[in-house]
Records
---
Amino acid sequence: MPGDEPTPERILELGQGFWASKALLSATSLGVFTELDRNGPLTVEELEESLGLHPRASRDFLDALVALDLLEREAYEYRNTPEAAAFLVAGKPTSFVGWFEMVDDRLYPFWGDLETALRTGRPQNELEDEGTHPFEGVIYHDDDILEQFVGAMTSLSMAAADVIANEFPWEDHDSVVDLGTSEGVVPRRIVEVNDHVRAVGADLPRIEPHFQRFTRESPAADRIEFRTVDFFADESLPAADVYVLGHILHDWSFDDRREILSKVYGAVEPGGAVVVYGTMIDEDRRNAVLPLLMSLNMLIETPDGSDYTPGQCIEWLHQAGFEGGEATPLPGPDTMVVARK
């Protein structure tokens, strides 16, 4: 074919992309990468035995992971690629296993109804009442789903936590509140790196056991505490030099975001700062594939949520009373915005 003629490869890969996605999610759920990290390299027969795989398709499955650059194969033995070893092994600080488990169990089935969501503007989650937020109706009421959710949020926030702990000017600040803290990976990392900072993880009561279990193992556990906070019901929030909001604003409507940021402004001490991070869309709305798809996920999951650009975030911060606003890309699809009071 002439060199300037379009070819179908990219379109076919995109249209059938859920095949590759489900292969990755299944491999994560089955524990392929964790097993190879602990006991590899292993043959196909050894993996069949240890993971309970049927021989009919096990070799095709493993070789598909090789073709996807997730596994390497040499002399009939499989091992993890460096990427898989870093991000797909359960228990590692950089692991996304918790996030992918939630994607597989909850989000993957819901995305089958994307067309309905696009036609109706209504979420397609497990709730019959489309106006009820999944936090209120499912996640914070089901022990198994909550356990998976907090683990997913930890996976999703680890890279941001490391950057915030190491690159934010903590020498100028002594206290921080992580609003919607989940297991507390952000405050834990901040106090471990900065030995003068005291941190509060703020969330709803059901989160506290998960937070305490995760943070009590920290060598800086004596400088981390949990506080029960409902950023809609509470008239005011705990005072601190710095507030961190990670993967929070996109869950809610525009009016709710303004309400949250107004309360945060009232809680930040003069001279303090707010840090907002999440999957923000690029200003031209052309290149940020994962943030744009995450915004569609907010359509499927929530009554009013959506993702936004750094410019929109800075505008809301200014409306709340903050000044400045610098946007910094983080590892992966996240962006961090910092503004001052």
---
Amino acid sequence: MGVPETTAIYLNMLLLFTVVLLLVYAAGTVSRKLMVGAAQKFSSRTTTQFDDLLIRNNVFTHLAKVVPLIIVVQALPLVFADFPAWIKPLRTLTDVYTVLLSIWVIRAFLRTIKDFMKGTDLFRDKPVDSFLQVISIFLYFVGGLLIFSLLTGKEVWAFITAMGAASAILLLVFKDTILGFVASIQVSTNDMVRIGDWITMEKYGADGDVIEINLTTVKVQNWDKTITTIPTYYLISDSFKNWRGMQRTGGRRIKRSIHLKISSIKYLSQDDIKRLSKIQLIQKYLEERNEQINTYNKENEIDKSLLINGRNLTNAGVFRAYASAYIEKNQFVHKELTMMVRQLEPTTTGMPIELYVFANDVRWAYYEGIMADIFDHLLAAVKYFDLEVFEHPAADDMRYLSNSLAGTRMPGYVAEAMQN
């Protein structure tokens, strides 16, 4: 008894399908090994990194899939010769796969370009990710239109026309992407931020190096190694501080004050001037200034029985001169940038003497060390000028005061309260 004709047709189709499936698998394996192997041999003989990146991003692996695809397309009419109604839908699926494979190849190539550009000095600090993401979005959009056209049988323009009515919804959905794209262009064009820049954005708790700039976000690695993610468009809508200029000049600003106790400021007598003249940094300054002041007072017949008459040196002014001489001689102060010691407006916490200078090492740890050494020295030097640094009373000060007053004649309940 023979095999029914219908069964024979299905068996023939299954047999051909199995043969084609095995052929596709074999062809895919062989083409991948040959193409990737040839690429690896070629890249080993070249000095450029571009071909190595092509291999790493699987460009040749995706290209090798073209051979099995060609076999499938050519075999469809043969395998399904007895089922002509199946050929068109299957051909549509192969066309969809062709579109997807094209997107994969182009995406792998774009990743290669990104890695290659990031490895060069010219583009290492540029927001390459942002522009490639825009290209990727456009690529997926075009691929989606083509797939829609293949599956529905409608023209691409018909779908684009239909999208016009939904443009408001699309703008809402892709708002962040559009804003990020515009921001990326402005950031790149105006050179506002580069990868590797140290930025500070207090509003979002960002204080560290920029490690990535893409279409929608900027990643900042803070000094405590945490990561802060900031929307890209916030860089053009909000204020932030970029420390690149400081790093370029090689000087980092020191702006800190010493608050002198106002009651310790006084005129200097000749004995005081003679004693302070032993300080080498201001010896010449004191001699010149003292001579100028004495000459002026003599010419104007100033009565110096009181120091307040005429011109005089003060211990605060001489201390400022000493601080200026000290920073000028300090090897860790940048000599080509501003060096200034200035007196600020007196406050309830004393009279501030501010140092406005630049350390010649921008590295954080070294900068802190330079600043600490300068102020350690100046704080220790204050007492040589009969000056005092203002500080609020501490618990020990209050106990000392209460103990000092405890022996004086006062009501018992007052002394007891102060002792407590």
---
Amino acid sequence: MIRKASLLLVGTLMGAVAAVTLAQVPFRVSDEAHAAASDTYRQLNLFGDVFERVRSDYVETPDDAELIENAINGMLTSLDPHSSYMSPKSFRDMQVQTRGEFGGLGIEVTMEDGYVKVVTPIDDTPAFKAGVLGGDLITHIDGEQIQGLTLNEAVEKMRGPVKTDIVVTIRREGAGEPFDITITRDIIRIRSVRWREEGDVGYIRITQFNEQTFDGLKKGIEETSEKIGEDNLKGFIIDLRNNPGGLLDQAIAVSDAFLDRGEIVSTRGRNSDETQRYNARSGDLTDGKPVIILVNGGSASASEIVAGALQDHRRATVLGTRSFGKGSVQTIIPLGANGAIRLTTARYYTPSGTSIQAKGIQPDIESLQDLPDDMKGRATTTGEAGLRGHLESEDKDGEKEQSGSQAYVPADSKDDKQLNLALDLLRGTQVNAAFPPVGDAASAPN
């Protein structure tokens, strides 16, 4: 019996501990398998030949360990934008980040066309306060060009001692020439859930899914319910806009907080016996109060699990713009003292059996924000379908991949059309056929 320790994640943050057991079973090797193995060994010999040629003939003496690390990372990043190699330091940093406190700028990033692309700045962090926006491309760090670096190398350059400045050069659609933003590094303490009373409505914002998220949600529901009063409480707004994702177990727990029964999400790997289903337990923390979920083009992964589960079960109305479309699950596989690999191992499916990979969650009520003049040229974020080499949609229902949608949220809540529409719907001052949701609960997946 071989045992492989792994971590599951569904976003740019890393995930819940799990154990995967691989059983040794009898098998017969066909002639085709022998031929495939032989061809693979020839390719490995080719790699060895190139490696030795580089070591012996390159103009400068290369670092052997660095060559191997870059070769591994190249193999993984060629699969999709979310698979990569993590050095021992990167692996340790990831583990710290999932606990909700780490050093840095406070941005979630990916790689696109050789540049670092900002998925979203994290609320109340140095990058957020400095004006970095989702969709921005970082082309230079302290005057040094990004192109040619891996994502991990670029992220490492953005890290540094607390209270030191870093200058990032931004290329922003619709902004003309690239421009510089100076950001002061700080300890990023992520309070993943914030809440407040909006009169007779409980407003709960979830910025990411880390180890503290479900506990924060539970506390937010309890405090807002107590302050508003059960008799006066019209319902809840769960704001998942620009939430890049995080831990799978926390997405399941947050969904379960509003459901009494039924499937929340399923994950399906390459082999049919790898399918896992996650079901709700009885107990709705809101006692059935109406719920509206806010999403936009920056709502990814774990956010989409929550929105998809509550939408399919007709438990909540989803309002805003189409979500990012990251419907894949990554497994963090530790390599002992050599770090870890982050590998896409499954797609996830909403309770109705729908994969949102490269398509996203379509809101029940679409609502676009009014953009300020300086942003009218950049109304969209790329979305999963715009990432080079992304895992393709299964496209079983003929639905085409979607390239992305608006991800702007005004700083002042009085200008926030999506939030204000949600408040009006809960108070009954506006009506829409999609609220409250009607119809049968989601059917079981096929």
---
Amino acid sequence: MQLPSSQEIIDDLAFFDDWEQRYQYIIDLGKALPGLPEEARTPDCLVKGCQSQVWLVARNHDGRLQFDVDSDAVIVQGLLALVMAAYNDKTPKQILDFDIDQYFQELDLERHITPTRGNGLRAIVAKINGLARNAVH
């Protein structure tokens, strides 16, 4: 299953009446991610600053950054799906130009996740933005 776009996710989440339904939708998005094989879960791929373990593998394919991600926590896997909808298979410029703060605000996400999950989410975004900046130079 291909992930919906970031705008489709915003629209889909607005459809639900309560956050329990929204959490389930986010978890289901995470289940759609292929994950990583065990041998790709190396210390080099771990994202620092996340409470849960999060692995991120990036590659540049014809000028677009593609990411494989995985987590040992179901809700974090869902949060990774939200980030992938915004960033995966985009050019470094598109990644750097994307207003992730506005996206999270439209999702009303940070009011509904713990501060440590929010910090982890920021660490993932910072890692991807750093990779995009390096790919530009």
